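Support case: user asked for a sample of complex input and structure output to validate their parser. Sending the pair below.
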Amino acid sequence: MANRKIVSIHSFRGGTGKSNTTANLASQVALAGKRVGIVDTDIQSPGIHVLFGLDETKMGKTINDFLHGKCPVSEVAFNIGERALDSEGRAKLAGMNLWLFPSSIRGREISQILREGYDVNLLNEGFQTILKELQLDYLFIDTHPGLNEETLLSIAISDILIIVLRPDNQDFQGTAVTVDIARSLDVPNLILMVNKALPKYDFADLRKQVENKFHAPVAGVLPLSFDLADNGSKDIFSLQHPDHEWSKALREVAETVLAIK
Amino acid sequence: MPGIFDRLQKELENKGGEGGITALDLADLPPTLRKIMRLMLRELQLNYPQLTETIAALPEAERLSGKELDEALDVLTAQGWLIRIGQGEKAIYKVNLRRKAGSKLASGVWNTLDEKLKGKLPDDSTTDAPPPKEE
């Protein structure tokens, strides 16, 4: 069996910076010379495409088209390393092997999925086909917050699950639920990432607290950043501002992912 | 008016939709069965010799005996969580995930939404929002 890894990024609640984290991590891993795919399974509220400069006019085929049997999953692939280099950060991805599989942002297509459901076998076949056909080293899955069919499937098939949480009691309770489910699904590598930590916190102490609470390693504590908020999902922040504290901590998480055999 | 075959076809489709395993069901499986299901989810389909070969290649603590594997496959196929095509050494196994059900909202709600969305041009949200004025 080839050593192809599925990495799911999840958070129990919205607003943790999950899509931003996924886009930045996948970009860093691609920059390390790996072949990387990103699937947006947040079918109800897709968003990661924005970080790669895509809008409805540039998007082409989507995961929704694939799930409705309108095209093979290979036709959904959007080659970031060739076609999304129109910003300072993304320009650094030129020639990298990074593909995005976006979900549709057309209202009717979102409502069609919600109304009719879809074949979950087909979604899983899509993941495995992407891994094999593009000979990926890593497939990142950006999930919908909370627990639903796509999220649970992506957790069940993951080699690595990264749970993003804020230092917030609601996030802590929700994360406990996801950690329990991940453990009962035998996910081999469970990693936590604390995002939006107030700069006044002692990050080393926070890391220790979270690790003790969930009995899982924290790969990085990322600060709450006005600079990142100001970026407004227009670019891949860690590429645009590689020396920023947020970017350094993000790269620590990417290194953890790369170190997992 | 729908004919008898249309009705039977609909019934079959509905039955098909009820079968299969959900990702949440996986969490409740005994470890042996879950191990096989996780393997099958990644491999999509394997024939019996490939399955035994893959199981044999697992770390010693995770390996299953031939008897354990056969019993597990029988349980999983009986439940409809794995589909067995063929018999014996030639059997091919495929995972069977339950279809994600559609919304239970009245169809009128969706039809109204569809009407509203029909013909709508790429919406304005796809263009960059103007940056807020700095004070």
